[in-house]
Design the sequence.
């Protein structure tokens, strides 16, 4: 209507109707503008705000400042100032090996009177040191024997190795994988570290080791998957990762799917575990294939690809309240909305009930939720219905 040439009617009733429609459209446009502003604020916060990357950069900046301050203090030789509330230094863990160095005066007689010195105690100062990792070479020697009578040849067969005709031992392979995947140390940097030790291990060699070790670990990953899918309830989520698209020189967004089992909050005996699957895209067929054998409850976000799983009836949805709360947090941060703030407070009451229920048996948790969480949730739903329509849709 707003894009059309306005011709006002002469009839008062038509004019009032026209004005009402015009006001309704202006109101709808205002709500849309507010929603777009909220989305824009969210995108700006995601790109320029306190993301994990910028938080990490802040940590690096703080580290640099702390290092510079420590260096300045050392140069100035400032005396140590005791602070009243200074936290106590934690002791070095007992499992760290101790190497004792005793500093003895050397002389057994007193320098003043010549009397014999006797030990009355000792002062111990512990200094944490680092001994760089070292490489060793296992020389597997297999003597070749022959019978003096019948000339029979005897030799112990070579034990199986992680990589046939390869040089790395299992400890070195574990070090490469832990450094890459747990410590986020790329293979080219590991190659540079090995080069400082005089070892020529280029990135392609390390990549070959990683690939072959991955194949060795596949049965273990399958066992973890069977353990996770045997649970009554699991958690599911996916994370976007950038992958090089073969032959294009470009990247595409792939997915890392995570399925987790954790029964510790309710005192379960099964060990926690996470099972990871990879796919080149986010089609719903992937979780459908991954969870083909699963029967039970699944705690996940509102990803549309999970809907077919729920419709099958074999998997029951447990919606994620954290994702609901996150929408209100985003609105409150971008607009300072009192309605969003109240919603966050109401959701906090649900969190308080869950905190009290954590670790309790199933019947006790159900009792607490029926008595305390259900009324809060019902009130939250009824209250949201009464909120003004000007609030941007979530």
Sequence:
């Amino acid at each position: 209507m707003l894009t059309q040439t306005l011709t006002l009617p002469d009839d008062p009733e038509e004019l009032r109707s026209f004005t009402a429609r015009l006001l309704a459209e202006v109101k709808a446009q205002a709500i849309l503008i507010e929603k777009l502003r909220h989305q824009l604020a969210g995108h700006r916060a995601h790109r320029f705000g306190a993301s994990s990357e910028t938080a990490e950069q802040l940590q690096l900046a703080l580290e640099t400042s702390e290092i510079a301050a420590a260096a300045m203090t050392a140069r100035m030789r400032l005396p140590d100032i005791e602070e009243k509330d200074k936290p106590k230094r934690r002791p070095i863990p007992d499992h760290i090996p101790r190497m004792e160095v005793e500093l003895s005066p050397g002389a057994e007689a007193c320098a003043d009177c010549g009397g014999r010195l006797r030990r009355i105690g000792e002062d111990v100062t512990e200094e944490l040191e680092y001994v760089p990792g070292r490489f060793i070479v296992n020389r597997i020697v297999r003597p070749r024997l022959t019978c003096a009578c019948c000339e029979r040849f005897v030799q112990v067969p070579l034990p199986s190795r992680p990589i046939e005709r390869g040089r790395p031992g299992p400890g070195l392979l574990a070090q490469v994988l832990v450094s890459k995947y747990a410590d986020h140390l790329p293979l080219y940097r590991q190659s540079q570290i090995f080069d400082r030790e005089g070892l020529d291990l280029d990135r392609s060699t390390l990549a070959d080791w990683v690939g072959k070790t991955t194949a060795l670990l596949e049965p273990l990953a399958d066992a973890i998957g069977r353990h996770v899918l045997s649970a009554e309830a699991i958690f599911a989520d996916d994370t976007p990762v950038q992958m090089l698209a073969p032959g294009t020189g470009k990247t595409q967004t792939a997915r890392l799917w995570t399925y987790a089992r954790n029964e510790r909050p309710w005192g379960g005996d099964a060990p926690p575990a996470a099972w990871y699957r990879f796919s080149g895209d986010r089609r719903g067929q992937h979780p459908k294939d991954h969870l083909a054998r699963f029967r039970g409850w699944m705690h996940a976000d509102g990803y549309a690809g999970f809907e077919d799983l729920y419709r099958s009836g074999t998997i029951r949805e447990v919606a994620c309240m954290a994702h609901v709360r996150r929408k209100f947090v985003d609105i409150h941060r971008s607009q300072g909305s009192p309605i969003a703030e109240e919603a966050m407070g109401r959701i906090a009451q649900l969190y308080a009930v869950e905190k009290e229920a954590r670790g309790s048996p199933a019947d006790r948790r159900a009792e607490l939720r029926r008595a305390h969480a259900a009324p809060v949730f019902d009130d939250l739903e009824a209250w949201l219905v009464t909120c003004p329509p000007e609030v941007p849709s979530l």
Summary: The beta strands are 145-146, 153-154, 233-245, 250-261, 273-279, 296-300, 315-319. The first helix runs from residue 12 to 48. The chain is about 45% helix and 10% strand.
